[in-house]
Amino acid sequence: MLEVQSIYKRYQKKIVLENVSLTIGQGEIVGLVGENGAGKSTLLQMLATLMKPDKGEIYWQGMAYHQQQKAIRQKIGFVPQDLAIWEHFSVEDNMRYFERLSWKRIGISACQQICQDMQLTQWKEPVSSLSGGMKRKLNLAISLIHQPELLLLDEPTVGIDMRSKQEIGRFLQQLARSQGTTIIYTSHDMNEIEQFTDRVLLIGKDRYYEELLTAKGIQVDCLS
Ligand SMILES: Nc1ncnc2c1ncn2[C@@H]1O[C@H](COP(=O)(O)OP(=O)(O)OP(=O)(O)O)[C@@H](O)[C@H]1O
């Protein structure tokens, strides 16, 4: 279980997160939505241990972030908005490279299986020749090599076509159901959020998303 207790974050004078608390259970897929600049990436970076809150505490499976950061980091997969892959290597070489650096050595067949499960089948092709959607899938596949318990995705499907979105969404659902992976992901696509998440957390002051999602019959929990 992920527990966030009353966290605060400000950049210079700008308060971004103010008294944010949330609880997410194992195997849940949660959509994090809100207007541009609401603080979604900031929150994800804190959940990924890459940034500390000014105040408040975060726990994963009862372990406090401020006390067991290294152990917690090994259980987290984080996919930032920007792609972090080697363009001139093949899909296989990317997976081999990151598998070698991984906390957990799963072997190359298991790496290939992750790609296949995501319908990323261009194993031998250079990344530079892949479509944007395939590159996003590879970025996601790399984050799964160490079999994270908590997967944090910052707009994993931005700029990609409907088909790849569907494939990624279905893959994430399968991952949560079969492995019990807890998944939090941000998106501005409310159809995708409706289709693939179990529930929605809204961040920021803008109530546009709340109205939109409530009209679709989706329950929204407001974080600020
Ligand atoms: N390192 C930083 N220094 C100063 N201000 C920052 C920094 N990072 C983010 N901000 C500001 O904090 C606010 C929240 O940014 P954040 O990237 O978390 O929002 P977001 O909800 O992810 O936005 P988007 O949907 O555009 O990705 C924004 O106003 C942003 O300009």
Automatic annotation (TrEMBL):
Residues 2-222 form the ABC transporter domain. Pfam families: ABC_tran. SUPFAM superfamilies: P-loop containing nucleoside triphosphate hydrolases. The keyword ATP-binding applies. SMART domains: AAA (SM00382). Keywords: ATP-binding, Nucleotide-binding, Transport. It comes from the Bacteria. Coiled coil: none annotated. One of its GO terms (molecular function) is ATP binding. PANTHER family: ABC TRANSPORTER ATP-BINDING PROTEIN, ABC TRANSPORTER ATP-BINDING PROTEIN NATA. Belongs to the ABC transporter superfamily. This is ABC transporter ATP-binding protein. It comes from Lysinibacillus louembei. The lineage of its organism: Bacteria, Bacillati, Bacillota, Bacilli, Bacillales.
